[in-house]
Design a protein that fits this description.
226 residues, alpha/beta, Rossmann fold, 7-stranded parallel beta sheet, binds NADP nicotinamide-adenine-dinucleotide phosphate, SDR_fam, SDR_enzymes, SDR family oxidoreductase, NAD(P)-bd_dom_sf
Length: 226
């Protein structure tokens, strides 16, 4: 069966996607910061392996990638993300927080993609899917939320350029907006539940081919302007 490696698998959208790929028969390497505390994740049925991973720890990423170097990975799902401070317009309340959001949302997905490239190259028609956000769309940006918007716009740019560079390897690279989702990040008033988002994201990820590489997709299958 194909193999998925996913970050931030213990809750929210990552947990939902992990459940869905396991139910589909995939082998899942589910990364989270604290596997001992991830009881719901550990209780999932199917071929799941839990791995401890703090995505801002470059050495930990390299160690994990080395562990799986001989194993083909069909799908790398960069899901882990943070919002940072909920600042409004004309405010960045903490620049250290800005740097941390960039480290998690922008730098870590690229580090993951490059570290796991040997495993992705071993699979047939592998994919790298990064959960970004519509808030990273520069053309749609209404102002405010500079930190989160910048981190997602930057990861979109990084993944688009990576897509161009590894097209020849047959690896499809996309970024996705999951919708405004009822998770800890999205809050209870969000527009859609996690099942709707997870079902939509999985359908889009499973459906894309190398022809779609470099694209920015909504969870409903539509595209989003940069
Ligand atoms: N919910 C929405 O409405 C929405 C909208 C657009 C985009 N997104 C994006 O969707 C993705 C998932 O969001 P969510 O709503 O599921 O958020 P969530 O419920 O807050 O879950 C975030 C996940 O990321 C993990 N994580 C955070 N920082 C990490 C780090 N440094 N190292 C490893 N794991 C880390 C968390 O692990 P811990 O449990 O250890 O903290 C958790 O598993 C994010 O990239 C987010 O930006 C969400």
């Amino acid at each position: 069966m194909p193999t998925l490696l996913i970050t931030g698998a213990n809750r929210g959208i990552g947990f939902e996607l992990t459940k869905r790929y396991l139910a589909d028969g995939w082998d899942v390497i589910a990364c989270c910061r604290d596997p001992k505390a991830a009881t719901a994740l550990a209780a999932l049925k199917g071929n799941i392996t839990l791995e401890a991973l703090e995505v801002t720890d470059d050495a930990a990423i390299d160690t994990l990638a080395a562990k799986y170097r001989d194993r083909p990975i069909d799908l790398l799902l960069n899901n882990a993300g943070i919002y940072g401070n909920r600042d409004g317009a004309k405010t960045i309340s903490a620049f250290d927080s800005f740097r941390q959001v960039l480290a998690v949302n922008t730098v870590a997905p690229m580090k993951m993609a490059l570290a796991f490239l040997p495993s992705l190259q071993k699979a047939k028609a592998a994919k790298i899917a990064t959960i970004s956000s519509r808030m990273g769309s520069i053309s749609e940006g209404p102002g405010g939320s500079y930190v989160y918007r910048t981190s997602k716009a930057a990861v979109n740019a990084a993944m688009h350029n990576l897509a161009m560079d590894i097209k020849g390897d047959g690896i499809t690279v996309i970024v996705l907006h999951p919708g405004w989702v009822q998770t800890d990040m999205g809050g209870p008033s969000a527009a859609i539940d996690v099942a709707t988002s997870g079902a939509g994201l999985k359908k889009v990820i499973d459906g894309v081919t190398i022809k779609d590489t470099g694209g920015f997709f909504n969870y409903d299958g539509g595209t989003i302007p940069w």
